[in-house]
Amino acid sequence: MSDFSYNAEMSDIAILQEIGAFIKNKRITQELTQEELAERASISRSTLSLLELGRNIALANLIKVLRVLDALYVLEAFKVEQTISPLQLAKADAKKRRRVSSKRKNKNNKNQDIKW
User: Fold this and answer.
1) Which of 94, 43, 89 is nearest to 66 (CA)?
2) Burial group, residue 112, by CB count within 10 angstroms (0-12, 13-18, 19+)
3) Interior angle at CA 75, CA 14 and CA 54, nearest 5
4) pTM for the whole structure
């Protein structure tokens, strides 16, 4: 799927048609009929047809179709990455342990024999 951010002037209908063309192209590339894809995605063939024509459908149905087409990767753009500021990173680094000391021996038990 292409990046739509380059063209903010693109209408909603044009974006839906672009998505529909993508779905249709993936389906044809995988040599699936609309009926086969719809059945595997558990949606009706008419819903798939509407999707390919660029009509409004439920987002859940789009996800089902993308999953069957092994194209969920297009949703990566929606993934929220948590960013850490340089200051937070420096504070976390300062808290890291830098040394390990040897275990302290109890002076009172140092020379005592073990009694059974």
Assistant:
1) 43
2) exposed
3) 25
4) 0.65
